[in-house]
Amino acid sequence: MVTIVKVLGLSFERPYRTDDQVMRTSTATAVAIASAATGLALGYRFFARNACLTWGATEAEAARALPGDGLLTEPDVVTTRAVTIAAEPEEIFPWLVQMGSARGGAYTYDWIENLFGLNMHSADRIMPQWQQLAVDDVLPLGDSGPRMRVAILDRPHTLVFVSEDKHWVWAFELVPTTGGTRLISRNRIAAPDAALPQRVFTMLVMEPGSLIMESKMLLGIKKRVERVAAALPAVVTKAPERREEGPYRPVFPTRTIDV
Fold first, then answer.
1. Can you tell me the mean pLDDT for 203-228?
2. Burial letters for 12-36: b for 16+ Cβ neighbours within 10 Å, e otherwise?
3. Is 70 exceeded by the pLDDT of residue 227?
4. How wide is the angle at C-alpha 49 spanned by C-alphas 44 and 52, nearest 5°?
5. In Å, how far are 235, 239, 240 from 243, measured between CA atoms?
6. 60: closest CA among 203, 158, 175, 153?
7. Distances from the Cα of 118 to the Cαs of 105, 142, 219, in angstroms?
8. Mean pLDDT along residues 216-244
9. Cα–Cα nearest to 143, from 161, 162, 164, 117
10. CA dist., res. 189 & res. 162, Å (int)
């Protein structure tokens, strides 16, 4: 028996397949897809995951303790990513302080952030009105996003946020080095109630996605800071004994939130 199929007015014959043949074909397709997915997961887990989670960071930076690590001692995911910026920590810190929704943005792909209603519009200049950040202030991440509070603030070296449910700690550390400053970003995330499918989704989708967004953010900060630094007058060879405080370096005591 044959089935007559008409496409664009033309007829051709297609052999009839029994239910048993259809079942075997469907099973083979499902096995092939499952095998490919398993291979992808194992390949990422053993060969690409570490590079994804530690993009730009040295082995020493990824292994070292950073401020804020103690706020979440048993994370399910830890990322440590970094970039070198040809500038001093004092020139970089204001860009971190002003981050947030309806503030300085996140210096990444705004259009992706805004698909989730985060209202991010990355600034291209230091904004004085957003420099007065203090411990316990909230970093806005949209109307429905997680509420991140300032947990540690040590200008101009350390800025740590912690979510109100204590399941996410996001730390920035500025470390002077030869040729500039290392900007290190570390995320510690816990998902205590996540089922296995959600954990697999996080590993295979969210982790690579976070690399795309965070690498763009770090490079975006680097680009902005170095562009501003390049536009400043050349540094004189004979510097005064005491450098004047810039307009975006308000003096605050170092504080840590009680958690």
1. 94
2. eeeeeeeeeeeeeeeeeeeeeeeee
3. yes
4. 125
5. 12, 8, 6
6. 175
7. 9, 4, 20
8. 74
9. 117
10. 10
User: Of all helices (H) and strands (E), which one includes residue 3?
Assistant: strand 2-7
* Residue 205 amino acid letter: V
**Longest CA–CA separation in the chain, Å:** 97
CA torsion 56-58-64-70 (nearest 10°) is 10
Sequence-distant (6+) residues with CB within 8 A of 40 are 204
- Asked if residue 61 lies in contact with residue 182, where contact means CB atoms within 8 angstroms, the answer is yes
Count of residues making up the chain: 259
Could you tell me how far CA 16 lies from the centroid of its own chain? Answer: 53
pLDDT value at residue 258: 57
User: Taking phi first (over 0 means left), then psi (-120 to 50 degrees means alpha), and beta for anything else, what does residue 209 get?
Assistant: alpha
Contact 69, 209 (CB under 8 A): no
Query: How far apart, in whole angstroms, are the C-alpha atoms of residue 107 and residue 221?
Result: 6
